[in-house]
């Protein structure tokens, strides 16, 4: 009997382990179904939530950066950089959208078309700063580790200037069209004009959020800087 009982037990043991594991999994599953989870367990989402809390629009900030939440590692400079990247991307879409409008799309005549072309040009000027803006924000991260305070302050000023220029760039575009007078206002009230205004609001929103995050990333390196 004994030689037969051992193999029987050996066969039974994995089955018991599987059953135990299964019981544990189903216990977890039933707990999960009874208790609705408050938020998706995305890595870094709590930190992102805290970073976004004090921005122009906390929910847009959080939702738009959530796909990158796992890459921030508790570093506000990295959040600011991702937000700046996103804001410049929105500005690029704005420029592309305006470029694709056929002449007379707003029904506002040549003077409105010319104003919209100027918006494309000023978006281009702003976009020329994208590389430098992202580079200085990136450098703020390394400056933090090395404690180079002056370099960090100069980089922060540059980042403020370049990222802070995104919103005003598109807002001044609307102001210029409006300043044409009745024709400008009528153009903005047209279906195409409303689309342009929606693009402007979107770029402005992401530009403002990015600027807030750049400003709020300051303690990240100031605290770590060498005393003077
Ligand atoms: C939010 O911003 C205000 C004003 O800028 C500041 O006084 C406050 O400390 C900030 N709070 C957090 C949690 O960063
Ligand atoms: C934040 O932005 C979204 C999208 O534009 C908007 O629907 C919402 O009302 C805004 N929230 C606040 C508090 O401004």
Automatic annotation (TrEMBL):
Signal peptide interval: 1-23
Alphabetical keyword list: Signal
Entries under InterPro entries matching the protein: Invertase/methylesterase_inhib (IPR035513), Pectinesterase_inhib_dom (IPR006501)
Keyword Phosphoprotein on entry: no
Coiled-coil regions listed: none
Pectinesterase inhibitor domain: residues covered: 43-213
Gene Ontology MF terms in the entry: enzyme inhibitor activity
Superkingdom of source: Eukaryota
The protein's name in its UniProt record: Pectinesterase inhibitor domain-containing protein
UniProt lineage: Eukaryota, Viridiplantae, Streptophyta, Embryophyta, Tracheophyta
């Amino acid at each position: 009997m004994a030689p037969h009982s051992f193999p029987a037990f050996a066969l039974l043991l994995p089955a018991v382990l599987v059953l135990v594991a299964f019981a544990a999994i189903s216990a977890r599953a039933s707990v999960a179904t009874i208790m609705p989870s408050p938020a998706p367990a995305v890595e870094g989402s709590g930190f992102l939530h805290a970073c976004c809390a004090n921005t122009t629009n906390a929910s847009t900030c959080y939702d738009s950066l959530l796909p990158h939440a796992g890459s921030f590692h508790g570093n506000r400079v990295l959040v600011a950089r991702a937000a700046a990247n996103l804001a410049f991307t929105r500005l690029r879409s704005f420029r592309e959208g305006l470029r694709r409008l056929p002449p007379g799309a707003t029904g506002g005549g040549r003077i409105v078309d010319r104003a919209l072309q100027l918006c494309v040009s000023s978006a281009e000027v702003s976009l020329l700063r994208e590389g430098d803006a992202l580079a200085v924000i990136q450098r703020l991260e390394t400056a933090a580790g090395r404690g180079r305070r002056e370099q960090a302050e100069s980089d922060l000023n540059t980042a403020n200037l370049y990222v802070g220029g995104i919103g005003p760039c598109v807002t001044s575009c609307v102001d210029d069209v409006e300043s044409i007078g009745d024709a400008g206002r009528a153009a903005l009230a047209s279906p195409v004009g409303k689309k342009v205004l929606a693009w402007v609001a979107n770029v402005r929103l992401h530009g403002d959020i990015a600027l807030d995050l750049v400003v709020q990333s300051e303690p990240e390196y100031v605290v770590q800087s060498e005393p003077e």
